[in-house]
Amino acid sequence: xxxxxxxxxxxxxxxxxxxxxxxxxxxxxxxxxxxxxxxxxxxxxxxxxxxxxxxxxxxxxxxxxxxxxxxxxxxxxxxxxxxxxxxxxxxxxxxxxxxxxxxxxxxxxxxxxxxxxxxxxxxxxxxxxxxxxxxxxxxxxxxxxxxxxxxxxxxxxxxxxxxxxxxxxxxxxxxxxxxxxxxxxxxxxxxxxxxxxxxxxxxxxxxxxxxxxxxxxxxxxxxxxxxxxxxxxxxxxxxxxxxxxxxxxxxxxxxxxxxxxxxxxxxxxxxxxxxxxxxxxxxxxxxxxxxxxxxxxxxxxxxxxxxxxxxxxxxxxxxxxxxxxxxxxxxxxxxxxxxxxxxxxxxxxxxxxxxxxxxxxxxxxxxxxxxxxxxxxxxxxxxxxxxxxxxxxxxxxxxxxxxxxxxxxxxxxxxxxxxxxxxxxxxxxxxxxxx
Length: 435
Hints:
Elements: H1 7-13, H2 18-58, E1 63-72, H3 75-78, H4 86-90, H5 94-104, H6 112-119, H7 126-136, E2 144-150, H8 153-159, H9 176-187, E3 191-195, H10 198-201, H11 214-245, H12 250-262, H13 267-281, H14 289-313, H15 317-325, H16 330-358, H17 362-366, H18 387-395, H19 400-431
Antiparallel strand pairs: 1-2, 1-3
């Protein structure tokens, strides 16, 4: 008995496992760190692969090839009366004028089918380009000017390398005769890549070279304005009441549980709610930013409430106690002291919720914002679409030009989201207080 209770004797008989156990623990910790680094590396690798894929497919959309034409603005065709009436100038057949200018470069083309194929080298927007020039400066009527017009989608894809001349003629949309005509224009210096401003200033179009994101961008920001105008005040007031004034009972517990559950509800459910209530019951206009903003406000509201409650809860109780101790009422303590200190966290949650709403597609599809909208929306009740929905529509189009337009629109949307998240981080860093 005495021998067993002797620590020295026990240490002699039992092997020293302390060093072995420490080595095992350190090895397990090293493996865990390696797993974590591998997971982070895999996530970064996938993200880089995604971004590289999007950028490699979309950067070419920011340039558009143009064809130079020596256009004769025939007064007999454009303004036969010489009155310079705007309505008369607008109704002139500018497409025929553009085709005549292009045929002048190839006088050997005489057949009807060849003329049609030659005219297909340039975009249908050539008539709009000439019309805008005449309306802007009617003095060019009767003169000959060198004008750059957009090339067609097939020619643009060929010049960018998406269509190769090495492939069989039957396997490509552009034929050998078209390539011969294009080579002559290139040799004459009449083909040039220019910045595609139409992508940022135009609306949607069936022709890829004429399609732009401005209409969808305006629709997105109109919806975002409605979303924030509805969800921010309601969300903040709800959070203040639940966190500062509401009694703790089964009813408030039930409300809190439902708010947390609504934050996890799939977004398409809110689209179904908007379809059933706003469109079918109240008869509000379909495919309007007002309805889209209301649906997104319902979806964003739980996120803002949860973020605002967390920000209010982070304010130390001593702030409330000090305000009450100098005679302030409960409302004054909250509005004058607690809420201003919690506002950076509230704004951060609001911006993150708005960024989530900006990238949503499913609820907007349910309320009809998947329609083909050419015009730029001028108000909250005008037909419109959103940038994510525009990306969805272009991704479903078969033309090669819409592939790069889709990727470029994704790049633009990602830029907006990165800016909004960066603003949220800057606000948190700028106004954050450590207690």
